[in-house]
Amino acid sequence: MPGTVLLLAASPLGRGRLVDAAGVLSVLAAVAPSVLSGTETANVVELADPLEPQAVLTRLRAAAAAPGPLTVYITGQLHLDRRQRLPHLALARTTPATVRYTALPWHWIREELRLRSAADTALVVDLHADAEAWRYVAERGLDCGRTSTVHGRVAPPPGRRGVAEPVYMKAVATLLRSGHRPPLVQLHEQAWARIAEAGGGRDLVLSVPGGFAPGLPYAHPPAAAQDPHTAISTAVQAGRHLDADVLAARHEQLAVGSHGPASEEALHWAEVRADLAMFAGDPVRSCRAWLGVAGVRLAAGQAVDAPAVEAAVDRAHHQWTRIKDTARARELGPALAELRLRVPGRRSGALESVQRQLGRLQAAR
Fold first, then answer.
1. DSSP secondary structure letter of residue 220
2. Containing H/E element for 273?
3. 204 pLDDT exceeds 90?
4. For tag attachment on the chain, is the N or C end more exposed, with fewer CB atoms within 10 Å?
């Protein structure tokens, strides 16, 4: 089965640039797609200094939905947004004051990969962090989710040396240009050995199966070989959408019985089922499920700008726009508009967009 490779290199244009991220793409692009992926054939998507986080999200979402192994190579820099103090990957237009709106929230990457299996999903990262983001990552680690293998490093600010070089990713690319991709653990060790003597002593090294970065508390154990996410992912890729939903529903019921309907365990499986409805081409069911998740989270006292709340409302909105049955869209529109009033999200004009579309639907009766 063909693999998929996403090459993402991004850093701000101007004085806020910490690393010449896009400079590594020419080296990676010289590597055969099959070697980048570790499969016989592969599709490669390249994003060099993208401008809009939503555009990156669209490409990431498509890559995550593709069957077969997925490898994501990310080079760039991390900053914290001023409101929630969460790590974001800076894009071309990002400034310290606009991180929340112009950078890619790191948890979006985790969320898009959560339905995949750790056995066929890998992140290779070379990241530089500003002073605040470096303290955050050093204390808490970098949450890449439990369904991805992650290798790489996070480096501290370059200081007075100016713009830094992504030496780890360049070492990875140079090794891959030999035409052979060893197991990622070995590739990471070989790349790290090449750069360690050049001053990587302060770097935070990421080399963890299942996406567990050092120092970060997790509510779940690493994904095992009998993990249900693997079985669900396999069923989806085979087109057995009903089987996938039945398995997820079973685990949702168990989580509700053991932990309660507002628990993170139960909400996780509700979110999985919402995504499964999307993969099955049922935007009505997916939208309704995401509305339910958002409602439960808000009723439990979660903040309107909490990442999980924003993500639920954004996904409900996205699925609502995919509904072709006008009666169903009219049915769900008021609930979405009410949620959008409370949870405006990061995209300006989202509430107005819902209201305009709902007005058109009402007028079409």
1. S
2. helix 264-279
3. no
4. C
Q: For residues 116 and 64, what is the distance between their CA atoms, to the nearest angstrom?
A: 7
Q: Cβ distance 364 to 326 under 8 Å?
A: yes
Residue (of 176, 11, 19) closest to 94 by Cα position: 11
Residue 45, φ and ψ in degrees, nearest 5: -115, 125
Q: Which of 136, 134, 119 is CA-nearest to residue 164?
A: 134
Residues 6+ away with beta carbon under 8 Å from 332? 284, 287, 288, 291, 320, 323
300, two tokens: 């439990």
CA atoms within 13 A on the CB side of 136: 18
From-to residues of CATH 1.25.40.10 in the chain: 228-363
User: What CA–CA distance (Å, rounded) separates 124 from 5?
Assistant: 11
Least confident piece of the model among 175-184, 202-211, 227-236, 316-325:
202-211
Q: Which CATH number fits domain 3-211: 3.50.70.10, 1.20.1290.10, 3.40.50.300, 3.40.50.1460?
A: 3.40.50.1460
Dist CA 363 CA 180 (whole Å): 60
Alpha-carbon span 203 to 235, nearest angstrom: 39
Alpha-helical (H) ranges within the chain are: 25-29, 33-37, 53-65, 99-102, 106-112, 131-140, 167-176, 184-196, 228-237, 241-259, 264-279, 283-299, 307-320, 326-342, 350-363
* Joined tokens for residue 313: 């409302």
Q: What is the mean pLDDT of residues 163-191?
A: 90
pTM of the model: 0.69
Q: At what angle do helices 283-299 and 264-279 cross, to 10 degrees?
A: 160
Residue 288, C-beta contacts closer than 8 angstroms, at least 6 positions apart: 332
Radius of gyration of the chain (CA): 21
Cα 24–chain centre separation:
21
pLDDT at residue number 212: 38
Pairing status of strand 104-105 against strand 87-89? antiparallel
- Distance separating alpha carbons of residues 346 and 271, to the nearest angstrom: 20
354 by DSSP, 3-state: which? helix
